[in-house]
Specification:
The protein is α+β, with helices and mostly antiparallel strands. It has a 5-stranded antiparallel beta sheet, with helices on both faces. It has a 4-stranded parallel beta sheet with strand order 2-1-3-4, with helices on both faces. It binds adenosine-5'-diphosphate (ADP) and magnesium ion. Magnesium ion binds next to loops.
């Protein structure tokens, strides 16, 4: 029987999706891709494949999960299988350079960015930035390598020191720092290529902003590290939720995002932007592996994983109808 296959490498992030599949009674299976084999003489099973491979998979000891997924997606696509978030989506997931190139192509403003390989070149790139800048990894997720600098000498000291960590692909991005008048970013969620909701994320406490509940509670599964425990405590003191769904979000950039994801084999994604004091918005992150915040969703009565399950269920039904017609 035809099924929904979920390709991923993090069990904790799939839990809410499993619950949504069960609720709807949808047939599904998981492909946990970290290590394993791919026999190219075989044909893939029938079904709808949802790729949730994450750019930060290497930080969970799954160093080659993204590479293996790239191979699996090529194989699925060569066999004409329906893939939601296909190989083009994966190429964007694992490279912010690719994201920014695609955003610009779609007329979407990004912060000025220079990519650099090698410590000397990282510093040289920073000299070309007119003001404060941040560093980040080209292959990132969960805020890897994100650091704010106000001077080139501070960066020079950092890259020469023991705390400097290279991106897993060796590419560091030097990026114009966008100062938001209020400390928040906006993440726009899409499911089935359609706008789902926008969520405001408070950035007072740092750059690691994974919305997954497993990340927010700072338990053993949390992929964002020790700092999270501290942040959680501070959250409790302020009493303000870090994630809040914006009820009537209607920015014109949504149409551009929709076109971009449609052009890149992406059905499900969360896209992040910052607004500066002049009201200009800068888009800087496309997450094809997106997670949702439980408390914010309960407050708003909107549920991303349910929307994903429903969408994948519809895709599976569509596949079934196509097969019937062909028979
Ligand atoms: N150019 C920028 N100016 C100001 N803040 C930024 C900028 N880029 C990233 N940040 C902050 O750092 C966080 C993580 O950066 P992001 O590019 O989303 O990396 P990741 O893919 O690791 O999530 C953002 O959510 C935002 O709060
Ligand atoms: Mg991000």
């Amino acid at each position: 029987m035809s099924k929904i296959y979920v390709i991923h490498e993090n069990d904790a992030w799939v839990e809410p999706l499993r619950a949504a599949f069960e609720e709807l009674g949808l047939p599904y299976a998981e492909w946990f891709l970290s290590e394993g084999t791919l026999d190219l003489s075989e044909a893939p099973p029938e079904g709808v494949f949802y790729n949730r491979m994450s750019a930060s998979s290497h930080t969970r000891d799954h160093r080659y999960a993204a590479e293996l997924t790239g191979g699996v997606l090529a194989w699925l696509e060569a066999h004409g299988r329906r893939v939601v978030n296909d190989s083009r989506a994966l190429s964007l997931e694992i490279s912010k350079i690719a994201q920014y190139a695609e955003l610009s192509k779609h007329g979407i403003k990004t912060p000025r960015t220079i990519a650099a390989v090698g410590r000397k070149h990282i510093v040289e790139a920073a000299r070309r930035m007119p003001g404060s800048f941040i560093t980040k990894h080209n292959r990132a997720g969960k805020g890897l390598g994100v650091k704010l600098f106000h001077t080139v000498s501070a960066l020079e000291e950092h890259v020469a020191g023991p705390a400097f960590e290279d991106s897993v692909d060796g590419i560091t991005l030097i990026q114009e720092y966008i100062r938001a008048p209020e400390p928040f970013i906006t993440r726009v969620e899409f499911v089935g290529g359609e706008f789902l909701y926008a969520v405001r994320v408070d950035t007072t406490l740092g750059f690691e902003l994974c919305p997954a509940d497993v990340c927010e509670i700072g338990d053993a599964f949390c992929p964002v590290g020790e700092g999270d425990v501290l942040r959680q405590a501070q959250d409790d003191r302020s009493g303000n939720p870090r994630f809040r769904i914006v009820k009537d979000f209607g920015h014109p950039v949504v149409e551009r995002y929709k076109q971009l994801i449609a052009d890149n084999g992406i059905g499900i994604a969360g896209i992040e932007f910052i607004e500066d004091a002049a009201g200009e918005i800068y888009t800087y992150d496309i997450n094809t592996n997106t997670n949702y915040n439980g408390a914010a969703e309960a407050e708003a009565g909107q549920y991303g994983m349910r929307a994903i399950a429903r969408y994948l269920g519809e895709e599976l039904a569509r596949l079934g109808r196509r097969k019937l017609r062909a028979a």
